[in-house]
Every structure is written in structure tokens, then in C-alpha cells.
């Protein structure tokens, strides 16, 4: 059903009399034509009143010539601005309407009553002034976007008023032997979007898209009627949980739940039906813009033995200057103009360990970036900027990736192998022959208890890890270099010094000496992600 | 700060001629340090263990019997949560004497975060310990 028919008359009359706006009236009459809602408010009001007047005419005159051929459909759809269709006889009948507050001559009221159902959402907030206000906010925020999603937060009392209107209409229709299911009514938010999306789209120059990453959101409030929901707390106390952080208990969700539970009689006992006409319109509290996060990935090398992965701050004091994540993300934040970042990598190394070879994969999530489009050239330039800014780290393969891709990186952390190079000291002397046998050991199984040095922040456990291969390089009687290829998650330092005997076997036990590690480097992280550029 | 409890340099058990016969973590009929259950589930979060035994300074950790019939009780000496006891000394008591400061450790204890500083301050440095030892030797001679 796309427009009003005879059957709707009593409903239209009832709702108009009780202070409901034309668009809400359409919603309760199940009018589904989007274009109808988009007509200017004044026209809709005029047409509705005309629609009602025609009814009066029919009642006042038995003769059916007054109104054109009993076409039961009153088409309110204009093809152009003029009210041609309405006045078939060429004369506007001035018939006084029953219960009409207007004086017969003036078709329009100079002041618009605030709708008792939508509290002005489908009135004032569909007008071009509001659209302009929203678009101004969007342009001043300087975001880069190709589409938008418009989300609206409505005050909970709207659901209460909607329920009251439904009950009222249901009752009236019942008298005519008709029924009205809640789902038949056009939802307020839906109708609002029908009207406002095309306008926003035109002003912003991009289409509305439910999947868009760029979100424009408006929060509406109506303080005047805030307490209208409170009766629900007494009627359905279990729907309302104690408030956190001084926020109102009466959230949209809680109110909706309570409305589902409450019985019709109880509702009518506590809430006036029809709902009263408010003095004021809703207020648009905030208009905010937000862009979905973008992800930048790459691989980093670490050349400093004095650089933590993340900022090292204890009791507000920074213990070591800078960090891998800051050195990389600083520049990304500046270029993408984001609010904040989240840095993650495929595993990590200690402060005093270098990362050589192809580097370690990492990903940076840039939150609410103002700028989202970068060409491959620009990304290369950004990479160069980062590399020029510090000799402690270098990045490569810098590129934009999707959120899903991050999962692949984390896989690497658990599954892929790593290779290392360790400089080892022994207490008792060694000769070349003493360490040669290490080269022949394959798939050496280790049992590693959680290292003492991390026990304060990791649970006690034993982990089985495998050293796949080793290659030794003799240096002198107390030193040699060991290259190893190990399973992900192996603690190399502990494998060398034994960690009080809690990692077995260890280099000390294999060589029957006391061994310690002087230097450690990561030679490779064996994962093919992100794609090499 | 993680603490590792070991036998002190001057402990009788580490002096010449002593042989260890047995080591036991059974402190009393109802309390065995071996039953210390420390559980933390998540890799990312170090959960509070309700099972782990909380130790005070005088809480016994283990009892060691030497071949000559003497029995020694090793005490915690610091307040904190018992994380683990070294089961290797049960199977191989020799390491207690061979490597008392590394593989022959007795237990690992984790003090409460708030008490950590106090505890560290209450300990002796290597130098201070040596001074205590030399004073002891001088007064007995």
C-alpha cells in the first residue's frame, strides 16, 4: 500500500487531532512510498487537511458529483508543485471541518506543533537547514571519504510514545474490525533515512552506503520528556540494571526490552494515550564523524641493543628513550591524521636483541584516520621518511592491508620458525672439537619452564620446543657463535644459560660447562607476510 | 620482583665434608611444598592464583638431612607467594652442594607488588654479607 485510502480516514483524523505530524501519520497508515515522505512538510500538511475535508464534503452532500468519480484513492503524489489534482471542480470548497483548530480560511498554521510521536525528528530535522548544519560539520572535520553511513541515536522516550500511538491506532481500527500489527508500521528511523539520505548525499557529493567506513552520527535528546521512561522501571524492574559511570539506566535497549514485556493494560495505566504534545523540539546534541580504521603493514629491522618494542614506563617515568612502535607509528599518525594507533607484530624481541635479515612483520592500526587514500608512490615515500628519521630501526614492504590480513600475521607468531645468531661464553675452555657435535643435532626437544625473568607476568608452565638445526662457529677458548633455527616461541637465552636448570637440555648441559649468552640477534622470521614489494 | 631462594655461602651444608642424605618438601603432615598449585590460564593475563601457598619469613621450605644425622630446615626468609620448589634436588641432591646458586636452588618466591621494595631494602648486598661473615669469624676466634 503506497498512499492513503478511505480506510485510513478515521486514523488520520484521530492522529492529526491529537498532535501527530503528517509523516508519522503516514507511518501508522503503512504508507510505503518513499517519495511521499520527501515532500515538503507544509505541502503534506495541506494535503492531509484536504484529504480530510473531502471526507467532510462527502458527508455533507449526498450528491457524489461534488467529488470526482468515486475514485477511492486520493492521490497525494504531485508530479509538479501545483495542487492540480486536488481541485477537480476548479473551486476550493470551504467547508468547515469538525474539530479543526484552524480557521477555515487559513490553510497553514504559522507555528508548527511539535509532533507528539517523533518529537520533531520527522519535522524540523528533515529540513535543509539541518542538513546544511550536518554537512558543515562534516566539511570542517576534513575527512577523506567516498561514501557515508548516517547513524542516528534517538532518545528512548520515542519508543514509549510510539507504543502509545500504536495502541491508540489499534483501538480505533479495532472499532472498524481491522487490525494493525506492530511490524506493519513504518519505522521512524527508516522513514527518517528515506528523507534525509538523498539530501545528505547531494550536499556531500557521495552516496549513502550501509557498509561505508565513514560514519556521520547524530545524537538526539529531548530533556523535556526524559522522565517519561521512568514508569517502566517500576513496571519491569529487572530490565533496568544499575547505572555505570553515572550514565542513565534508561538506555534504548533497556526501554525496548521493558516495552516488550509490559502488558498493554499496565502501559495504559501509567502513560497517557494519546501522548501529550511537547513544547519543544528534540535537540541534536552532537554531530560526529568517524572513519573506520586503516591498517598499514610492513617488516622492521632493529639495529639497536637499547630499544624496547613498546614504551618502557614505570611509575610514570620513562626508563628507556623511545620504542620500535613509536619510531614507526609516529610518522604514520602524522600522515594519516589519525586519533591513535595500535601496533602489533609477529612476535617480538628483547630490548637488547637486534632484528636482522628481512625483518619482523608488523601491522599498525590507525584509528579514525582523516586521510585514507595513498598511492603506492606515496607509501614508498612514507617508508623513506621513516627510514630517514632513525638509524635504530628500518622498515620495508610498507603497504596498506585489510583487517583480515592481520590474522595471517598472528598465525606466523605461533607457527613459523625463526633463526638466530648467539654469541656464547663458556667458563671452562673449549676447543673446536668440543662444539662440532652441535652441528649434527637435529630436532632437539627442549622442556622450558617459564623463564624466571618473565615469571612476574606470565603463568608458570612447561613448554616443549624444538631446535631444528644448529651451526657453530668457533671463536676462542671461551667463545663461540651459534646459529640456530627454532620453533616459534622458543626462549633462546634460556636455552644457552639453562635458567637455573629450568630449561633442559641447554648449551651448558650439552657441553658440560657453564655457558652464558653475550649477544643475540634475530636473523630471520620465516613468514611470507606481508607480500614483499 | 622474582626471588630465588638458595643456600647461603656459609651454610653448614655447603661446608667441607657434609654429605646430603635426603631432601624433603613435606613440612608437616598436612603441608607439602610439592603440592603448591600455581595456575594461570591465559598467556596474556597473569591471574591471581588462589591455590599457591603464601609464605612468611619463618615459613619452612624444606628439610635436609645430612649423612651425619643432622637435620636442617631451610626457611623462606622473605614474604611472598611460593611459585615453585626445585624438584631436581629431590632426585639429585648433589647439585645442592655443587651448584647451590644456580641449578641447586631451593625455591622461587614472588613477593606482593607493594612489598617488593621493602623486601629488597631488607636484604644484604654481597659485600654486607661478607662483612657479617668476617665479624662472625672474628668474634668466635
Automatic annotation (TrEMBL), chain A:
It is an enzyme of class 5 (isomerase). The keyword Isomerase applies. Residues 115-289 form the Pus10 N-terminal eukaryotes domain. It holds the Pfam family Pus10_N_euk. It is found in: Cytoplasm; Mitochondrion; Nucleus. It comes from Alectura lathami (Australian brush turkey). InterPro entries: PsdUridine_synth_cat_dom_sf (IPR020103), Pus10-like (IPR039894), Pus10-like_C (IPR048741), Pus10_N_euk (IPR048742). GO terms for molecular function: metal ion binding; RNA binding; tRNA pseudouridine(55) synthase activity. Keywords: Coiled coil, Cytoplasm, Isomerase, Metal-binding, Mitochondrion, Nucleus, tRNA processing, Zinc. The keyword tRNA processing applies. GO terms for biological process: tRNA pseudouridine synthesis. One of its GO terms (cellular component) is mitochondrion. Its EC number is 5.4.99.25. This is tRNA pseudouridine synthase Pus10. Residues 295-526 form the Pus10-like C-terminal domain. It catalyses: uridine(54) in tRNA = pseudouridine(54) in tRNA; uridine(55) in tRNA = pseudouridine(55) in tRNA. Belongs to the pseudouridine synthase Pus10 family.
From TrEMBL, chain B:
It comes from Alectura lathami (Australian brush turkey). GO terms for biological process: dendrite morphogenesis; regulation of actin filament polymerization; regulation of filopodium assembly. Keywords: Cell projection, Nucleus. GO terms for cellular component: dendrite; filopodium tip; growth cone; lamellipodium; nuclear speck. SUPFAM superfamilies: Single hybrid motif. PANTHER family: PROTEIN ABITRAM. Belongs to the ABITRAM family. Transmembrane segments: none annotated. InterPro entries: Abitram, GCV_H/Fam206, Single_hybrid_motif. It comes from the Eukaryota. This is Protein Abitram. It is found in: Cell projection, Dendrite; Cell projection, Growth cone; Cell projection, Lamellipodium; Nucleus speckle. GO terms for molecular function: actin filament binding; actin monomer binding.
